[in-house]
Amino acid sequence: MLVIRRDLVDAMVAHARRDHPDEACGQIAGPEGSDRPERIIEMENAERSPTFYRFDAAEQLKVYREMQANDEEAVVIYHSHTATEAYPSRTDIKFANEPQAHYVLISTRDPIEHELRSYRIVDGVVTEEPVKIIES
Amino acid sequence: MAVTVSIPTILRTHTGGEKSVSATGTTLAEVIDDLENNHGGLKARLVKEGALHRFVNVYVNDEDVRFAGGLEAAVKDGDNVTILPAVAGG
């Protein structure tokens, strides 16, 4: 289960809406081993594409170093789907390299109602999990 | 020519769980060959058909090697090599 503060959910959705129709991507860092997302980091989608995303490599290194210095890890890795449901695509599964992360998908295909779902992706196997939003 | 190589979580099965290991070489290709000698299986995760995998980012200090010669990127004593799998999808 992903337990996450309301303000972090709102921030991910706002980011996804802002970058629509391109895919938005980012991560939420938390203390290593805590499984507690705390600090949202909106990442540049180097692909600037409605069907693909990739963290900008230079920004990824900078953020990685920050997280290491703070003893943090990526608790959530999120991105949006702008024309399809919030379910991992074949490429999402292929490139999922963080077994400890919650992969959050946000669909912005409906202009009013978004869809937000969370998954574990380990060795190519997708497992959906409940999302518990706590009031911040 | 000893360098320190940071290993991402997903590849630590090849290093017995170590987050960073040391290796030697004067180019990235030599460093990867040396890594392979001590941590078998790593090279195949980084190199495909004589080039770096498209979805693995490798940095020498703060520089993405894609812009510094790829596998031929020069490394010198004391450099830090960081390996980060691309975070990508569709």
Automatic annotation (TrEMBL), chain A:
CDD domains hit by this protein: MPN_like
Pfam family, one: Prok-JAB
A molecular function GO annotation: metalloexopeptidase activity
UniProt entry tagged with the keyword Ion transport: no
Top-level taxon of origin: Bacteria
Biological processes annotated in GO: proteolysis
UniProt-listed SMART domains: JAB_MPN (SM00232)
InterPro entries: JAB_dom_prok (IPR028090), JAMM/MPN+_dom (IPR000555), MPN (IPR037518), VirAsm_ModProt (IPR051929)
Keywords: Hydrolase, Metal-binding, Metalloprotease, Protease, Proteasome, Zinc
Domain MPN: 2-125
Cellular component annotations (GO), alphabetically ordered: proteasome complex
Alphabetical list of PANTHER family matching this protein: CYSO-CYSTEINE PEPTIDASE (PTHR34858:SF1)
Protein name listed in UniProt: Proteasome lid subunit RPN8/RPN11, contains Jab1/MPN metalloenzyme (JAMM) motif
UniProtKB/TrEMBL annotation, chain B:
Entry-linked Gene3D superfamilies: 3.10.20.30
Listed SUPFAM superfamilies: MoaD/ThiS
Transmembrane segment boundaries: none
Source superkingdom: Bacteria
InterPro entries in alphabetical order: Beta-grasp_dom_sf, MoaD_arc-typ, Mopterin_synth/thiamin_S_b, Sulfur_Carrier/Prot_Modifier, ThiS/MoaD-like
Pfam families given in the database record: ThiS
Record-given protein name: Molybdopterin synthase subunit MoaD
Species annotation: Lentzea xinjiangensis
Lineage: Bacteria, Bacillati, Actinomycetota, Actinomycetes, Pseudonocardiales
